[in-house]
Give the backbone structure.
Amino acid sequence: MRAVFTLLTTAAIVGLAVSALAQEASAPAADPAAGLSEWARVYEVFSHPRCANCHVEDNHPRWSGAHYGVTRVHAFNVQGGADGSGFGNPGLHCTTCHFNSNSSVLHGPPGVAGWHLAPPEMVWFGKSSAEVCAQIKDPARNGNRTLDEVAIHVRDDALVGWGWDPGPGREPAPGSAQATFDALVKWAAAGAPCPSP
Ligand code: HEC
Ligand code: HEC
């Protein structure tokens, strides 16, 4: 009786092991090629002036695009602020000029609520696809977010949303917030591969 029991248990364990193996084989494998093409879409957005001009490492937002002529440092010596908040220096806060909606005048200040500069570790301006990819995966530099949380920020945040509704004269970022969210989710599911530097 005992021998039969042992035999049965062994058979059950072997059976479990076999079905676990089978499951592993049928689970979707990380697909680097598919992941890299999703990442390329994401980088096209992140590196666009409507996003990258607020994601700088030197505390100075940029003006760029056809509407601005050459890319240059934001006029009026605007800076993220000595206190590191991104909201500007005392006396010249971003919200002195940037209101809760876009100016309807060409070259008027664009705006949504809470306009401020991204922290310097979230730098995209002038950075390669490999560099931005490494940054966005690094919790020490992405605001301690999981990749799901990064995607949700892109879909729901008001400053990000402005990139597709930037006011007169400015070219919007490519695609849409939803399309960029979808690309981020697919990239993460494919193992979040980064291009080689
Ligand atoms: C003295 C007023 C003023 C202040 C203060 C100011 N801005 Fe601006 N900003 C403007 C104006 C005006 C424009 C639009 C210029 C144009 O369209 O030619 C602008 C445009 C921008 C743009 C759009 C650039 C682009 O390429 O899409 C960004 C980004 C920006 N500002 C960021 C900031 C940030 C961040 C702060 C605070 C740290 C700030 N600004 C503070 C006046 C200001
Ligand atoms: C007006 C300035 C501004 C603009 C324009 C802007 N951002 Fe940001 N972004 C910020 C700030 C500030 C933070 C930090 C907020 C936080 O961590 O909660 C941030 C953080 C982020 C993050 C969090 C993770 C990380 O590592 O960067 C993502 C993702 C992001 N922005 C995407 C975008 C995209 C996509 C666009 C363009 C469609 C964009 N942003 C345009 C200011 C801006």
Notes: Residues 45-46, 50-51, 54-55, 86, 115-116, 118, 122, 135-136, 142-143, 145, 150, 153-154, 159-160, 162-163, 173 surround heme C (ligand 2) (CB under 6 Å). DSSP finds eight helices and four strands in the chain. The mean pLDDT is 89. Residues 143 and 186 are 21 Å apart (CA to CA).
